[in-house]
Design a protein that fits this description.
By secondary structure, the protein is of the alpha/beta class. The protein has 13 helices and 7 strands. Strands 3-2-1-4-5-7-6 form a 7-stranded mixed β-sheet, with helices on both faces. Helix 3 links the parallel strand 2 and strand 3. Helix 7 packs across helix 8 and helix 11 packs parallel to helix 12. It is globular. 43% of the residues are buried.
């Protein structure tokens, strides 16, 4: 499975890596952004990823770039406890990686049969734990809050009624599909799978933590650059950047409106279609 970094050039334009600079890639994944940064300037990248499966990729980067690259198997929300000195930029690609989606054993895809896991790494539970242990009401709230699914109560009820029939991702997807009429091209299971994944990985709280903490770790002219893929993430980023920008003498928005992929990029990489890129810089 080829890893295609979304909005790669647009990210570089905002981050503007400089020689001798230190940059943080909070979502290393397949290394697309890290490679772009390292090849654009004689700088250093400190990368984070909670997924243990990317360690083999990180090892190759450490061999190729040596002292210019360091990797931490950690959640980006832990950045402040790991990095003590200031840096010149942070980039986050909040999408689920192609590697995760294409591996049935990870349980992210409703199109592939695999265990109901959905953990990106360093998690305390699985999607299976959630549907079995949480009440129908709480499950419905999770699906509504993190998936913005208007049929959340119907779905939660159907899941609970059919728990003994759900042993893998396709079982769950079929139970969801059985109680919702398909509208347009979107699979009825999409929002519920999103909600369970976000909840399992505590993604929104991790995002809030890394934004809050990294803003205080940036050098003068340092940049925060974030690519989000759904409204929940983008809302958090937009709101946080807007709050920072109120400190007019210290922070300045780099993007008044989000940058989105060109039609050409979408034609090459359909998964990029919902991406939104936002950036902000520290003035002093």
């Amino acid at each position: 499975m080829q890893h295609i970094p979304v909005l790669r050039q647009e990210m570089l334009d905002l981050l503007a890596p400089q020689d001798v600079g230190v940059y943080v890639d909070g979502t290393f994944g397949g290394g697309g952004y890290t490679k772009a940064i390292l090849e654009s300037a004689n700088c250093k990248v400190i990368a984070f990823d909670r997924d243990p499966y990317v360690k083999v990729i990180a090892d190759k980067f450490e061999a190729d770039y040596k002292e210019r690259f360091n990797f931490f198997h950690a959640k980006y929300g832990d950045i402040r406890s790991i990095i003590e000195s200031k840096f010149d930029g942070l980039v986050l690609d909040l999408g689920v990686s192609s590697f995760q989606l294409s591996d049935p054993s990870r349980g992210f895809s409703f199109n592939l049969s695999g265990p109901l896991d959905m953990g990106m790494g360093l998690c305390e539970g699985t999607a299976q734990d959630i549907i079995r242990k949480y009440s129908e009401r709480d499950l419905a709230d999770i699906i509504y809050t993190f998936g913005e699914e208007r049929f959340s109560r119907r779905i939660a009820k159907n899941i609970k009624l059919n728990l003994n029939k759900i042993s893998n991702t396709q079982d769950l997807a079929n139970i969801i599909r059985s109680c919702i009429k398909k509208i347009g091209k979107t699979d009825p299971a999409t929002k519920t799978f999103q909600a369970l994944r976000i909840f399992v990985n505590d993604e929104l709280e991790e995002l809030k933590k890394v934004l809050r903490d990294s803003a205080h770790l940036l050098n003068t002219n340092g940049k925060l650059v974030v690519v989000s893929f759904h409204s929940l993430e983008d809302r958090i980023v937009k709101s946080f950047f807007k709050e920072l920008a109120l400190e007019k003498n210290r922070f300045k928005l780099l993007t008044k409106k989000p940058i989105t992929p060109t039609l050409e990029e979408i034609s090459r990489n359909h998964k990029s279609r919902s991406a939104k890129l936002r950036g902000i810089t520290v003035l002093y």
